[in-house]
Design goal:
The complex is a heterodimer. By secondary structure, chain A is mainly alpha-helical. Chain A is about 75% helix and about 0% strand. Chain A is built from seven helices and no strands. The longest helix of chain A has 26 residues. Chain A is globular. By secondary structure, chain B is mainly α. Chain B has one domain. Classes of the chains: A mainly alpha, B mainly alpha. At the A-B interface, helix 1, helix 2, helix 3, helix 4 and helix 5 of A face helix 1, helix 2 and helix 3 of B.
Chain lengths: ~180, ~100
C-alpha cells in the first residue's frame, strides 16, 4: 500500500465517521465542530487531487467562514448544554432506509458504468491560469458566471443585512402585544 | 499523483457523504442542523466534480470552476439562511421547525 492510498483511506474514514456524527450528535455545538472536521478532510482530498487553489478556498471559505458563521448563530440561538431529544425510532428508521437504499442504488449504478478518460495531456493548474480563465471571454472563459456570482454575492449580503436587522419599532410593539 | 486510487473510490465516498446529509436533513428538527446537512450535501457534490475533472478531463477546468461557483453559492446561501434563522428566533424564541408553523401573524 502506498502512502497515497494510506492518506486517502485516512481522509475518507474521517469524512464518513465525522459526517455521520454531524447528523446524529445530540449536542449542536459538537455537531458544528464535527462538520468542521469533515470540511477540513475534504480540503485534504482536494490537495490529493492536486487542486491546491480549491483546497485553499475550501479551508478559508468553508472551514473558516461558514463554520464560524454557524457557530456564531448557534451561540445566539441555543444553550450550549441543551441536548436534542432522541429522534423517534420510526422517523429515524424510515429516513435511514431511504438514505441507505438511495446510496446502494447510486453505488451500484456507479460501479456498473464504465468511465472513459480522455487521452489528452493534463493541464497544469496554477493561479495564473485560473485568473486568466475567470476573466476571459473566449474559449474556456468564465467571465459570465463570474459576474453572475459577484451579483449574487452582493444580493446575498444586502439580503442578509436587511433580513437580520432589527425591525421597525412599530413591529416590536405588535410583537410584544402578541406575546 | 493519485496513483493507485481509482475514480470509483472518490465517487463512492461522495455518495456516502451525500446520503448521510440526506439522512440528517430528514431527521433533524433544528434549523441550524438542517443547514449543516445541506452543507454536507453540497460538499459531497464538489468532491464529485473535482474527481471527474482530474480523472476524466484533466485538460479542462470545468469541474474546478463549477465547484468554485458551488462554494460561492453555498456561502451566500448560508449567510441568508442564518439571517432568516436569527429573525425567526427573534420572533418565536425557538428555531425548532415543528414549533415554527405560522408565516405571518
Amino acid at each position: 500500500m502506498t502512502s497515497n492510498q494510506l492518506m486517502f483511506i485516512l481522509f475518507s474514514a474521517m469524512i464518513v465517521v465525522f459526517s455521520i456524527l454531524t447528523v446524529t450528535s445530540r449536542k449542536i455545538l459538537r455537531a458544528a465542530v464535527y462538520l468542521l472536521f469533515v470540511l477540513v478532510s475534504t480540503a485534504g482530498l482536494y490537495f490529493m487531487l492536486n487542486y491546491q487553489f480549491l483546497a485553499a478556498v475550501q479551508l478559508t471559505l468553508y472551514a473558516g467562514g461558514i463554520v464560524v458563521l454557524i457557530i456564531f448563530s448557534i451561540l445566539l440561538t441555543s444553550h450550549i448544554e441543551h441536548q436534542f431529544e432522541q429522534v423517534e425510532w420510526k422517523k429515524s428508521l424510515f429516513s435511514a432506509l431511504a438514505a441507505i437504499s438511495g446510496a446502494i442504488l447510486c453505488i451500484v449504478t456507479i460501479l456498473d458504468y464504465k468511465f472513459s478518460a480522455t487521452a489528452e495531456a493534463a493541464k497544469e493548474v496554477d493561479l495564473r491560469l485560473i485568473g486568466n480563465s475567470l476573466l476571459s471571454v473566449g474559449k474556456d472563459g468564465y467571465v459570465l458566471p463570474f459576474e453572475v456570482i459577484s451579483i449574487l454575492l452582493l444580493a446575498a449580503m444586502i439580503a442578509a443585512i436587511v433580513i437580520a436587522k432589527k425591525g421597525a419599532p412599530k413591529k416590536e410593539e405588535s410583537q410584544t402585544l402578541n406575546k | 499523483m493519485n496513483a493507485g486510487i481509482p475514480l470509483y473510490y472518490f465517487l463512492i465516498l461522495a455518495t456516502i457523504m451525500f446520503f448521510v446529509g440526506v439522512y440528517g436533513f430528514l431527521t433533524r428538527r433544528n434549523l441550524i442542523t438542517i443547514l449543516m446537512s445541506v452543507e454536507l450535501i453540497l460538499n459531497s457534490v464538489n468532491i464529485n466534480f473535482l474527481a471527474f475533472n482530474r480523472y476524466l478531463f484533466p485538460h479542462q477546468l470545468e469541474g474546478l470552476f463549477f465547484s468554485l461557483f458551488v462554494i460561492a453559492v453555498a456561502a451566500s446561501e448560508a449567510a441568508v439562511a442564518i439571517a432568516i434563522i436569527i429573525n425567526i428566533y427573534r420572533r418565536f424564541t425557538t428555531i425548532n421547525v415543528e414549533d415554527v408553523n405560522v408565516m405571518k401573524y
